[in-house]
Automatic annotation (TrEMBL):
Keywords: Hydrolase, Signal. CDD domains: Met_dep_hydrolase_C. Gene3D superfamilies: Metal-dependent hydrolases. Residues 1-27 form the signal peptide. Residues 324-415 form the Amidohydrolase-related domain. The lineage of its organism: Bacteria, Pseudomonadati, Planctomycetota, Planctomycetia, Pirellulales. PROSITE patterns: PROKAR_LIPOPROTEIN. The keyword Signal applies. This is Amidohydrolase family protein. One of its GO terms (molecular function) is hydrolase activity, acting on carbon-nitrogen (but not peptide) bonds. InterPro entries: Amidohydro-rel, Metal-dep_hydrolase_composite, Metal_Hydrolase, Metallo-dep_Hydrolase.
Amino acid sequence: MSDSKNLSSAVLAFIVGACMVFSPATAHDIVPGAPQSKPIVIRNATLHLGNGTTIENGSILFEDGLISEVGASVRLPESAQVIEGAGKHVYPGLIDAYTDLGLREITAVDVTIDNVERGELNPNVRSWVAFNPDSELIPVGRSGGVMLAHVVPGGRSLQGQSGVMQLDGWSYQDMLLEGPVGLCVNWESVVPRGGDSKEKAKRYDEQIQELDDLFERARRYGESIAAEESVATDVRLESLLPVINGERPVFVEADRLGAIESAIAFFTSRQIPMVICGGADAMHCVEHLTAHDIPVILVATYRLPRRRSDPVDALYSLPSKLREAGVRFAIAGEGSGYPGGASNIRNLPYHAGVAVAHGLPREEAVRAITQSAAEILGVADRVGTLTAKRHATLIVVDGDVLESETRVIDAYVQGRKVDLGNKHKQLYRKYEQLP
């Protein structure tokens, strides 16, 4: 009995100790913004609408969390808070279109990682349910101007359903803007690389057949439901119905040419809408992308080329080349499965900025991390541009948002003013006092 009590005490002590060690590393204490209580007018600022146009010395009015007016001048409600914007720039809140923010915190600490479910076929997994609203990485991202994130699950093959999260709120329910957005598939794991060619071909054929069987079962399941037949509920098959019916896209993680071409062949033959995520080799199959109007989310353009034979600026110049070829695209940061991942979400504007230095017009780069991202994710009716009736999710900065020296001065999510403090700034202030 005594040994049992001692063991229980030891287990309890371990749990309490673990909580004391890991809680500060995985949760922030910043209070979410309060709902907008009065109209706000920002005037005499440079407005970057997110659709490729700007308004010099413009003004924007937002009320009850929605943008009311944008232009050279706007009405001034009697109770409005007026913010002088001279010398400042206003942008839509930036959107990271492919990330595991809120699902993965510290790679070396297992209890902070919740981006992968067991098994290879998990179409029913919902990323936003596991989203950590108190992640220390969220305030860091907001300080870089990122106000929205397309949060995707990780894993092999069918990873699960993704959601668009607003980066301010008390819980994942508060922060969810749209979910599910689509089905996430890791096609890089379907198309193997290296090794014995016969074994590779065999494994590829097995995985394609497995996926084909699952989609066919989902199609028959949907037909049975439509015919009002009595069928046992299957959450995996049910989660696939919006995809096979063409109501939601498949977000296909594919960087290599072989993976991109294989994915296009598989999903277009089944009339399933798709988005290529990663897309390093997208220019090598641009004719397929344009023929099927397949958009691309370019993940981490600020990285080295895939091949030794490629020019060093192969990925830097890719956005400009895709634009010239007529391919719809957005730019994401160092997303799910990429080195750095969500810990570098603050660098999103610089991935767009390097594309400007290699041929992409500046306002088109802004569009790639605002309106274009919102359109691909199906949320452009609410966010992505500074236009009337859209959410008042925006940032105020002291310069060009694509430049590293620019600071975010103010930020709003649906009209709620967001606290721009974060762990990085806290440590800077602390060690600034070091004797």
